[in-house]
Amino acid sequence: MKTIFRTFRTCGVITAIVAFPLTHGFSQSEATTDPVGIIELSVPAGGSVNSPKIALISPTLTQPIKWQGTISAVSSSTQGLITTTTITVDGVQWAANDFNGANGSHYVEIVSTAIPAHSGALAQITATAVASTTSSITTEDLRTFAGVGDTIRIRKDVTIADIFGATNSAGLLASDDPTTGDEVYVYDGSSSAAYFYFTGAPPTYPAGWYDSAFQLAPGTAEKVVIGPHQGVVIKRKAAAGISIAFAGSVKKGNTLFPVVSGANGAVGVNVLGTVSARGFTLNDSGLYTGNPATGVKPSDDPTTADELIIYTANSQTSYFYYNGGQGYASGWYDSAFSTTSPIGAAVTIAPGSAFVLKRKGGVNFNWALPSPTSF
């Protein structure tokens, strides 16, 4: 990951939360949709081309549930290194290609009562099919998580256009050169791709969103997905700050966020968002499980523990989980040990924000982020 983090301010505020009755397409057991609201994301003032300000944000809100029902069959197939899963439901529930292609990209969520730890697994939908008495979707590999009798929820993806506007209604600094315009970095673990709003060079390159390397065709970058687990870094190169409003659904239930380790023992750097509409403290984040194979690695030394970094207006603070001893109780501390007792109950990750998690060895794991059930 590029060391682009300097200073940022981000603020997430959820307003106007309300639940609407169902209209169609949901199982009879579901009484209402997810609550909906608006989140406001702030990007700081004071940036310039030579010294950008940095904001770490995430959508937090999702698109509404488009379809919900029960799995009747699951199968998987592997070709080369790629494994896909086919999930079947009874009845003709949708049309072919409803959840891919011209209708935009969608993802599926698994909700399991048989194995609650599987709930919140997400995967992109790559195909939608209909037979005479069944409907099916093909997804990325879900063979470990999806089972007969589990519930699936299908949502449309949040995209760059959804957050920032297809015509840059958010007001980011547009340019004919990505080095002088605001850049939006979408992270998946430690990998990222940069995008900016191009002022246009018609007819070959009309105004719109482009990747900073100009590798994607016009009209493609605005459809780039920002997944529920993905953090977004904005490099603000203008003097004025802006506020970005995004309307969406408040996701309920756990969500599994992939946390990756580095290759060959290297540190795995994860830029993670949040779908918790009320935010959460380190204590109730679920990141520490007591098992370093399923959560963050504790230590009596911050240099060897997994490191969680939260960025504030003019600084950054690193936290780790201390495993106790030497006169200190176990719990979350900042890496400088500026307090003599744990501070995990007081450190909050706000809705709409993102943070960095450095995984120092160990295996990849799925962080089960608990989302609130009331607001």
Describe the structure.
By secondary structure, this protein is mainly beta. It is 1% helix and 38% strand. The protein is built from one helix and 24 strands. The strands form six sheets. Strands 4-10-7-8-9-6-5 form a seven-stranded antiparallel β-sheet, with no helix packed on it. A hairpin with a 4-residue loop joins strand 19 and strand 20. The protein is globular, with a radius of gyration of 21 Å.
Q: Helix and strand succession?
A: EEEEEEEEEEHEEEEEEEEEEEEEE
How would you classify the helix and strand content by structural class?
mainly beta
Helix percent band = under 10%
Could you give a short account of the major beta sheet? 7 strands, antiparallel
Per DSSP E runs of 2 or more residues, the count of β-strands stands at 24
Main sheet: strand order: 4-10-7-8-9-6-5
Tally the helices: what do you get? 1
Shape: globular
Strand proportion, as a percent range, falls in 35-45%
Overall average residue pLDDT: 88
Report, as a whole number of angstroms, the end-to-end distance: 35 Å
In the predicted model, the low-confidence regions spanning at least 5 consecutive residues are: 1-32
Radius of gyration (CA) equals 21 Å
